[in-house]
Amino acid sequence: MDYDASASASSFYTYVRNDPTNMTDPRGTDALWIVDQNTGQTTLVIPVDITGSGATTGNVTSIINRVNSIDTGASSVKIQTIATDKPINGILNRMDFSPGYNKTMCGDPRECVNKLGGDVAHINSANPDSIDAAAHDIFHFPGIEDQYQEGPRDAQGNRTSTPKPGYNNTNIMTSRSGTKLNPAQISEGQTNKTTKHCIIQTGSRIPTCN
User: Could you give the number of structural domains in the chain?
Assistant: First the structure.
């Protein structure tokens, strides 16, 4: 099942009695793992509010499309990132997509999510690979880890890295240009403590979550 910003809002907000602003999630979860018993489809849903001067309609669309095109290695598991400024079942991540760096939150990398499984991120929209960087960091919201080893800065001061053992640059958590996640990484999103689990019962269209 596909979940997009327009089609999903009404059904997801049913969980919170159509009051997504006040009916929040006190546990601070930031992704939904939805199993549809009607279709056998499982979807990792990541709601994110992308703001900042670089968050043009075109850039936001490119980021969302980039994340949702990732190959999960399993036809029954999909990634569905939803660009929205309203919580879905109380869940909403926030990404500042604007020129410049945030060393206060991110330290030396200067672009980051506030923590693995966190819900706040900053990406420098002025960088040539900013769309890929945003897509990479969105996967940190549901707790999917980096799979690269940081190297020394190059002559221009840019970061360098090498893949961790068992990974290569086709993986988006190894390289920002990667296009894949493997099943173990999908499991990280499923088992992360900030992921909420939901089931769409047979004959229903509305998930129930715990």
Answer: 1
